[in-house]
Design goal:
single chain; alpha/beta; Rossmann fold; Hypothetical Protein Ta0175, Chain: A, domain 2; eleven-stranded mixed β-sheet; 21 helices
Length: 573
């Protein structure tokens, strides 16, 4: 379930002439029975609303006074969300004989008295705003509106705005629209509201809202996904004939339900592309949880990081953080023993799924080193796999080593570096696709939608818009696998000294004999390791320059490489 809450206006939307008919009341009951929640967001005062609508207990939260007061129908608790009306302003309206009513936060009148209201605000020099709702005129402190009221309700309920549908009819509903994942306008709505709507209902008022609830119960509004491209994620700009004739060159994917496999060799650009996608998640306010076995993303500052090279992630603290819709998380597994990382993830995955079932988030789950986290031996109940891996990005060097059950739910394959990932996926599932082994240029990707039968599309991969510091201490002090470690062996392979991180590398470099050090230097082994495993192109460049210096002695080259490492990391030795 993606849309967990329906936020509805009252007058002109849910109600006709102040009354909600029996059919709409029955629809509200059915909607709640589907497991979803309801919020009412109205300009009315609470006592007035209670008089005309004695069914407020159908709603989980009620925002009244156009965002000024939040009401809990079951506990009958009221919470002021803004300051009470300014007494000087009220006295001046009385003095000037302007008719009005005052609530706990709002002062309300009607046209044509808006001119007198604006004059009073100007004469007193007050920081107040005037909000129109057809013929109604409401005065509130600046910044208070239906959007801020709905936000307060969502904060209490732990629901993200992405998982909300808002429905209204008038201009004061626009701030509520902008706080919602899907915006619906009833047929009788003002033209200005319809222009902002993702969905214009065919019927007016309560009949339209009833139809909207039926659509939600039937397919969670999946039939209207094409209307919601503003929430889509770009996989890059199309570079060939696949570019849209409309001029939109971006290759978009729906944020709801898509499962991606991003694969390619080490240092091919997977992390760069993922960083560009993560920044889209941040910009569009999607919550994500990234499983980071090797600490590649720990310096991504837009998310809380749990775990480090010396500490196992605290699962309880992680889940508490994810309780806030606005907080994303990175789970650094470098402090978990290599052989235990897949088990740690297997224990965490059901808890993340429980949160997704309850709150429809984190909106995205990203699994780096998926061939380790979801190995061929991974076999949960088949019926649960589509739900477990919905809206998931799996990143791997070896797609053939990822569990076939996980690969089976993939909607999009993104190949980086070369076409091997697509060819491997096609081979696993017996799909006839002739690509050959073709290199993919740096900064580009080949995107394939295997379930559609369409040919792969070449794109310019999205890039991080901000400088992202990577691998600050992860490779400095963490534990790389045996295959990723550097081995000082020497010219005759008499040694087998393993450096599982940069700290150990520098310690061993100081201790090995000159012949061993120079052997690896002349082979270009240091720059190769920095590029392929440490994934640091600048460190690779500096090391390669030292390796090419035929006049460099063992002592001099050791010191220069040490300085290069320590300048980019945090004095690891």
């Amino acid at each position: 379930m993606h849309y967990l809450l329906l936020a509805t206006d009252y007058d002109g939307t849910l109600a006709h002439d102040g009354v909600v008919n029996d059919n709409t009341l029955s629809a509200l009951d059915r909607f709640r029975a589907s497991g979803r929640k309801l919020a009412m967001v109205t300009g009315r005062h609470l006592p007035d609303l209670c008089n005309v609508f004695p069914h407020l207990d159908l709603f989980d939260r009620v925002v009244v006074e156009n965002g000024g007061v939040l009401y809990h129908p079951r506990s009958r608790e009221e919470k002021l969300l803004s300051d009470p009306p300014n007494q000087r302003f009220i006295e001046l309206l009385k003095e000037r004989k302007v008719p009005f009513s005052a609530g706990r936060t709002v002062v309300a009148t009607w046209r044509p008295h808006d001119g007198a209201v604006l004059a009073a605000i100007r004469d007193l020099g007050l920081d107040l705003q005037v909000i129109f709702n057809k013929e109604s005129v409401m005065v509130l402190p600046s910044g208070v509106n239906k959007g801020t009221g709905l936000h307060a309700a969502l904060q209490e309920l732990g629901i993200s705005a992405h998982n909300v549908v808002a429905v209204g009819d008038a201009e004061n509903d626009l701030p509520m629209f902008r706080m919602s994942g899907c915006r619906a306008a009833v047929a009788n709505a003002l033209p200005s509201l319809k222009e902002e709507a993702d969905l214009v209902l065919e019927k007016p008022r309560g009949e339209g809202v009833t139809n909207l609830m039926e659509f939600l119960i039937a397919d969670d509004l999946a039939q209207f996904d094409a209307n919601l491209q503003r929430h889509s994620i770009s996989l890059g700009q199309k570079l060939d004939e696949a570019a849209s004739s409309t001029g939109d060159r971006d290759l978009w994917i729906s944020p709801r339900g898509a499962t991606l496999l991003v694969a390619g060799p080490s240092a091919s650009g997977k992390s760069t592309m993922i960083a560009g996608i993560l920044e889209q998640f941040v910009d569009k306010e999607y919550q994500f949880c990234l499983i980071d076995p090797e600490g590649d993303y720990d310096a991504f500052t837009d998310a809380l990081s749990f775990g480090n090279p010396k500490e196992t992630p605290d699962q309880k603290a992680l889940l508490r953080a994810l309780d806030s819709p606005e907080q994303s998380a990175i789970v650094n597994l470098m402090g978990v023993a290599l052989d235990d990382r897949a088990g740690f993830f297997s224990g965490l995955l059901p808890q993340i799924q429980d949160l997704r079932t309850r709150a429809a988030r984190p909106h995205w789950l990203i699994i780096d080193e998926a061939h380790h986290m979801l190995p061929c031996s991974w076999s949960p109940a088949n019926a649960t796999i589509p739900q477990l891996l919905e809206s998931t990005i799996m990143i791997t060097v070896h797609p053939e080593h990822v569990a076939k059950a996980a690969l089976n739910v993939v909607d999009v394959v993104v190949a980086i570096g070369n076409t091997d990932a697509i060819s491997s996926y096609a081979s696993i599932f017996g799909i006839q696709l002739s690509l050959g082994k073709t290199e993919i240029a740096q900064g580009e990707a080949l995107v394939w939608f295997p379930k559609t039968g369409r040919r792969p599309v070449r794109v310019k991969a999205p890039k991080s818009a901000r400088e992202r510091l990577r691998h600050v201490r992860q490779y400095a002090e963490g534990e790389l696998s045996a295959n990723q470690s550097f081995y000082f062996r020497g010219p005759e392979s008499k040694l087998n000294l393993r450096a599982q991180n940069l700290k150990t590398f520098l310690q061993l470099a100081d201790g090995v004999d000159d012949d061993t050090w120079m052997y690896h230097l002349r082979q270009g082994d240091y720059s190769t390791w920095f590029e392929s495993i440490i994934k640091d192109q600048e460190l690779k460049r500096q090391a390669a320059e030292i390796e090419r210096d035929m006049n460099a002695s063992a002592r001099d080259s050791r010191e220069r490489i040490r300085q290069a490492v320590e300048a980019r990391y945090t004095a690891p030795a």
